């Protein structure tokens, strides 16, 4: 006899509960410590790669955007507002010890887009684009009607003042004289004030025209301010500070010697525009053509974020409840142009 048994087996498999995905991190705010640390690195990079005019200090972080690239790898896009300081780019004084030029001296603002990489917690600048502009004459006059405004650097009165200042200084220098490299800025009121960056040269014989620039590995740099009064008589006051030799510092566009009556080769804008567009050649991630596109996209994201925050703040809230600040733009450190 055969017994046929049909067995139905129920195999119970272990149940794996779905693990909820980790929530995305909150968006980086412009005033977060991470944003400020990236902005500090960006500003130092910009000043280190600028060859004209003055150092710039951070005034405001306008926008920050983070683009994940993989484990422990991010791209950061910053939009920065900067303000001109009183330290020339060749001045060895650290940026934190430089005074931001006050509004009344016809301030200059810099606008920069900077691309950084955060790889394993280490930030490095990949690329930067900057330009600068002076505040409008109307804004300065509204606050300070008697304050002199910036003049074109090729203004004939400015050039004459620079030549007079150099001649005055060189006539009183027994062992060396200065040759103009660039005019930093100039303003005309009753007197003409010009700031120039200069190189120091050894005096050979009595005729300064025979002097030659020192080699780059020996050259010393200096900075002069001059005030030239034209009424009732001409009075030239010059104050020069020499920085000494700076290893590794070169100046790509030397000027001409005004002591011989030559006009310096300066352009006709009122301030030295940053006009900085620089890619880091040693960066681990190359600065490709998507930088401008992503920078524009970051601006659109910032506008949406501000609009959403404004809409959110319209909601009814309990009395005494402070609405959260919008993620961007950040706080103003000095003043807004």
Q: Could you give the order of strands across the largest sheet?
A: 1-2-3-4-9
Approximate shape: elongated
Number of helices: 4
Total strand count, please? 9
Q: What's the gyration radius in Å?
A: 29 Å
Structural class: alpha+beta
The main β sheet shows up as: 5 strands, antiparallel
SSE string, helices as H and strands as E: HEEEEHHEEEEEH
Q: Mean pLDDT, as a whole number?
A: 76
Q: What amount of the residues lies in strands?
A: 25-35%
Topology:
Elements: H1 33-48, E1 54-70, E2 73-88, E3 108-119, E4 122-134, H2 137-143, H3 156-171, E5 176-188, E6 191-202, E7 220-229, E8 235-245, E9 277-279, H4 290-313
Antiparallel strand pairs: 1-2, 2-3, 3-4, 4-9, 5-6, 6-7, 7-8
Please tell me about this protein's structure.
There is one protein chain. With 337 residues, the protein is an alpha+beta fold. 19% of the residues lie in helices and 32% in strands. It is built from four helices and nine strands; from the N terminus they run αββββααβββββα. Strands 1-2-3-4-9 form a five-stranded antiparallel beta sheet. A hairpin with a 2-residue loop joins β1 (54-70) and β2 (73-88). The longest helix has 24 residues, at 290-313. Mean pLDDT is 76; it is low at 202-206, 254-263 and 284-318.
